[in-house]
Amino acid sequence: MVEVGNITIPESELVERFVRSAGPGGQNVNKVATAVELRFDIATSPSLPEPVRERLLARRDRRVTGEGVLVLSAQRFRTQERNRQDARERLAAFIEAGLHAPRKRVPTKPSRGAKERRLAGKRERSTIKQGRSGRDWD
């Protein structure tokens, strides 16, 4: 079970697969399936509120498949249990990112003084450059 804020995701919605890891562990890596591939179906999960689901699916994240399934691969640690815990923590962090709605941007305009300062600077630059133009010194 994964808990994030007021959202609880039951074990039945998580699919874990254990595969051989490429990380540390020496010859043990070749024998023991310690890496965890955690799958969570965002699109059909009844645990997620609709606005959170939409925000998570709208994110441009390569870990989310076209069908709306989040696939997390954890192989940082040597033990299966620690990798499982790491994958669940990363799932919680991903869902946490979708909990908060981004604030709407308020478009602003430059003030009159700022426009005047910008144009004055352009005029100064222009006169400097015009002064550099080829003059006949004969």
From TrEMBL:
Among InterPro entries, the record links this protein to: Pep_chain_release_fac_I
One GO molecular-function entry? peptidyl-tRNA hydrolase activity
- Prokaryotic-type class I peptide chain release factors domain segment(s): 20-36
GO BP, one annotated term: rescue of stalled ribosome
Q: Which Gene3D superfamilies match?
A: 3.30.160.20
Family annotation (PANTHER family): PEPTIDYL-TRNA HYDROLASE ARFB (PTHR47814:SF1)
Q: Which NCBIfam families has this protein been placed in? A: PRK09256.1 (NF006718)
> What is the protein name given in its UniProt record?
Ribosome-associated protein
Write down the species: Lysobacter spongiicola DSM 21749
